[in-house]
# Entry
Amino acid sequence: MKKRNIVIGIIIIAVIAVIVLLLSLSTKDNQSMESIANDYLVAQGVEISETKDIIVKKSIKSSLLFSDEWTISVEYHDEPGIFYMYLYKDGKIEFTGVAGSESKDRSEYNHCPIS
# Structure
């Protein structure tokens, strides 16, 4: 019984260590993804000074599966509480939608990309 508890404890510690390691690697990559997101927005004609916040995240699932998927959330000064969502996958960024508001027609938002 003691040996079984020790083995279970070691397995739990190993899993936690792997998750912490993967998340720390993601944090290092986070800075380069922020740069990629900024470059993308500038290429789309966005003045970075117009943005209130740009949040780049990699999910734990993506980290565990060694996937290169990131979500990018952009909030602008002129539309507080409205978040423009993008997905970075396979080296490309694509607009996925708007969050944080009641449903509106796409044309009612100030920063929706032209599709």
